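ok so i was messing around last nite and threw this chain in just to see what happens. nothing serious, just curious
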Amino acid sequence: MSSGEGFAENVIARKQQMAVLVPGYNEESAVAKVVADFRCALPTAAVYVYDNNSTDKTAVVVRAAGAVVRRETYQGKGHVVRRMFNDVEAERPLSLFGAFGIALAIAAIGFAIPIFIACVQEVLVMRLPTAALSTGLTPLAFLSITAGLILDTVTRGCHELKLLAYLALPAPGEGRRS
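result:
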C-alpha cells in the first residue's frame, strides 16, 4: 500500500476541511468538466481554480461551474503554485497574537505616561491601581507575542508536513502503466 492510498478517505473520515486547487490558463473548454469531476469525487471539498491571466472566458466558466476563482497576474506555473499554497495557509497566529500584544503594550505605555508625569511633578505616585495595571499589561503583551511566535512555528511545521504528504502522493496514472 502506497502512502497516497486512502488519503482522501482518511481526510473525509476525520471531517477535516479539504480544498481542491486547480491551476488554469486558457482552460475555458475543459475547466467545467474538471470542476464537475472533483465535485463528484470529493463532494465536501471546496474547489478553487487559479486563473493565470487567461485571455479566454475561463473565470466565467469556473464561476458558472460553482468553483471559486482566484487570479494570479504573474504568468507561469511557479507563480500560480506559490500563490495556491500561500492562500491555503489560512492560519496565521503570529499576526493575531502580535497585534494583540502590540495593543496591550501601547495600552500599558498609555497608562504609564500619566504616572511618570505625576511622579515627576509630585514626587509621589498617587495612582497605584493605574501603576499596577500598567505593570500587569506589559508581561501580558510579551506573553501574547511569544505565544504568537510559538503557534506560528507550529503552524508552519504543520504546513510543511502537509506539503510533504502531498509530495508523497503518487502522480495520476503512475501505477497504471505496464
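not much to say yet. The longest strand covers residues 19-24.
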